[in-house]
Structure formats: structure tokens, C-alpha cells
Amino acid sequence: MAETTTRAVLPKGFRSAEHGWPxxxxxxxxxYRLPLLGDVLGASRRTPVQDSLKxxxxxxxxxxxxAFGKEFVFxxxxxxxxxxxxxxxxxxxxxxxxxxxxxxAGDGLFTAYNHEPNWQLAHDVLAPGFSREAxxxxxxxxxxxxxxxxxxxxRAAAGGRSVDVPGDMTKLTxxxxxxxxxxxxxxxxxxxxxxxxxxxMVGTLSHAQRLNSVPAPLSPLLxxxxxxxxxxxxxxxxxxxxxxVRVRRAGGGGGxxxxxxxxxxxxxxxxxxxxLSAENVRRQxxxxxxxxxxxxxxxxxxxxxxxxxxxxxxxxxxxxxxRVWGDxxxxxxEQVAKLRYVRRVLDESLRLWPTAPAFAREATxxxxxxxxxxxxxxxxxxxxxxxLHRDPEVWGVDAERFDPARxxxxxxxxxxxxxxxxxxxxxxxxxxxxxxxxxxxxxxxxLLRRYELRPDPAYRLRVTERLTLMPEGLRLHPERRG
Length: 482
Ligand code: HEM
Description:
The chain is α+β, with helices and mostly antiparallel strands.
């Protein structure tokens, strides 16, 4: 289980990074900085993270960008990120996009400030929901949902049609978390368009990202319409979630065989006897629905893209599935972890495109980052995972190349710690990591076994950003294997 110490927080309104960095002037920033506006020349509002990647390459392992009077420090050099992983001096910082999600997710696990009592309470109550035993219980449901995907792809294959990969992976991962966590069926595969719940979730994520691209005092004016749409999205999510909870309570609770919702409603903290309040349950359900599907959907989509573009890798992965699973129609829980090469494909996809591309860390006391950059307590920096995973000093001059061999046991052992961080770090790292990995490896195994994945030769990878990353417009032609 993750370490569970609580941490100090920033004072309210302390949003810009510069205050806590006494030697900020030593950290490079892009040229052509404009007064008041900052580093906006050539900056893209739609792809801020990929923009930062561009600056990272030019400016080095730690750099800063300024926008509308706020200064942000980005860190990606492997040594510095390893230092930021030291939980005795640094903790999660709830800022930027994560803080912008507070109106929808409040003090739910992902958006809670470190000091909020509901973080520890919910963490302790929900962590057993991700134990090995709990995961083994979710496995049959994951298989059932995956069957709905393959039925859908079988029809496309029979008709010679292509499939919308991110769209279908989103349906799959939403249904998986909804079934396993909450005993709920959104009927996503019966809808030709995304479920309204998905539209609302994507809306809130995009809005949270957009809020970073305008000066805070002007956002009510500049984003008035978007703000109204966001309020409607939040209301829609609350309605859907309240209905899910109502149905469970009406059934007397406990109807979910100890799933996450049962835990939220029924389980008292083992030491304090405290329970989650009704309002907090609502926040947690929304948190798990969003956090539990969006990033896994992107991870599966990127992996399928790379598999379709690397027939040699796909053939090797498929051979592994055939060997390990044999003729078993429904692979068992234990048979998923045995797909070592498929897991490497997934890890390598998450290296190149960590679907949660950054996370923020704050100093919990006055300290010096990497022995070079003084930080006062409360100062924070954004860890640019997307660039950490491409640091040539760690991954070599061919860091941009897709190569699952990087995750062979020997290669992993030879690398320093903290250089692969798709699930964040420390006490606030991803609680759903094993869930996501199990689900994704299972689904990749099932798809590889059943189909040849033919790419559209004209497709060039474009990546959309809405806090998370997703390949845009990716379509594949699944062909049933003989
Ligand atoms: C490939 C899939 C996933 C990726 C890449 C991912 C990534 C992350 C990252 C980077 C964080 C830390 C964020 C920060 O430090 O601000 C995080 C936290 C979290 N994730 Fe995931 N995640 C994935 C899947 C999941 C799933 C499947 C669930 C739930 C079933 C989940 C639930 C959460 C929650 C609740 C937190 C907050 C934990 C806390 O602060 O205590 N995630 N995730």
C-alpha cells in the first residue's frame, strides 16, 4: 500500500510558481517573452503539453514558461525527477488542470488537497478495492465487457469496415469501470455516438485544460459560454451518478459483491470507524468514472496504433498470446500477467505517450532541487512525464523509436529508478495502476488473438490533449484471423 503521510498545502490563491523559487532567474525560459502576456508567441492553446515538449528540447531539464503574469516551472531531467520523488521533501501539488477539476471532483481522491481528511479516509477505505483478490474478482466482468467490443469489431470485420479506435476503447474502458466499480451498465456499445456521460466527462476535462490558457481574472468573461456548458456537464454527471447511487441504496446497498460502490457506501475506516459522506461518495464515483477510463482508453489506443505499425512486434505478441492462452476461450486471471511481451508493448506505448502526461510536485519544506535550485516550502513544479520518458540520457539517442525491448527485465534493471512514471509517484500515485494494466493487457491479448490489425497507410499520428492524451482520428481495419 502507498505511504500515507499527510502533507502541507499551499496558501489559497498561491497559483503561480515563481514565489517559491528564490533563484528563478537561473532557470531558462523561451526567447521573445512579451510583457504581460509572457511566452505566448508560437504557443498553441490546443496542445500545451506537446508545446512544452518542444521547449523542453530547447531549454533543458528544467525550464519555465510564463503566461499572463503567471510563471510555471517544468522539470523533466531524470536526476531532478528522481529528486522530486523524495517523499520526505516533496508531495503532490494540486494545481493547474487538477485544481481546475475541483468544481466537479471536489475532495475526491484525485483532486483532494493533501491535508484534506477525506483523502486519507477514502484512500484507506478504497485501497483494498485494488488488492489482488479484488482484481481477480473484477476479471470475469472485464472479459464480459471485452466480448461486447469483439462482437462490435467482428461485425466491422465481416463488413470490411474500419473501426474508430479511441471511440471504441473509450466505450470499453467506461463500461469496464462502470461494471466492476459500480455494477452499472451505460450501454455504450448500443450507442453510435458517445454516451452523454462520456461527452460530459470529456467536456469537463477539456474545460479544465482550457482554463489554463486564459488569464484567471478574465476567464469568466472569455469563457462565459464554455463555463455555462461546463456547469451543464457537471450537473449531468451529478444526475447520472446520483441515479447510480440511488439504485444501489434502493437495493439495500451491498448488492455489488463488495465492489467500489459498496465500499464507498458500507465500509467504515478500519481504525476510526468513519464513513464517507453522501457528498464525498458522489465526488468519488465521478472521480473513478473519469480517472478509471479516460487514461486507459488512450493507453490502449496508442498501443493498438503501434501494433498496427509494427507487424513484427504484433506477430511476436500474438505468438505469445497463442502460446500462453492456447485454446482457452476465456483466459483466467492468472493467464493475463503471463503475457510478458504484451505488457512490454503497453509499457513502451505508455513511455512514448504517457496518457497522463504530467503531474505536479510541491516542496513540503525549504529545500534545494537537485542540489542546484532552491525552493521554498510550497513552491511547485510540473513534472513533464512526456519528456522524462524521452530523456536521451536515459533512453538513448533513439528515444523516439518504439521498441518494447526497452522493458526487458535486464534493461529495466540497468536504468536508474524513477525514469518511467506514467502512474505518478509516492503516496498520491495512481490507485488504479494494477486495474489499468490488467484490463489493458487482457484486451490487447484478446484483440491480438482474434484479429490482424491493418492500419490506414495514410494515417499520421496526431495527438489531442484534454488533460489526457489520445490519438486523434485513429482508425484500424480489424481482420478475423483464420
Ligand atoms: C493507463 C491508465 C492510467 C494512467 C496512465 C493513470 C495515471 C495516473 C497518474 C499519473 C496519477 C497521479 C496524478 C497526480 O500526481 O496528480 C493518477 C492518480 C489516480 N488514478 Fe490513475 N491512471 C490510470 C488508470 C486509472 C484507473 C483505471 C483508475 C481507477 C480504477 C485510476 C484512478 C486514479 C485515482 C483515484 C488517482 C488519485 C490517487 C490519489 O491521489 O490518491 N487511474 N493516475
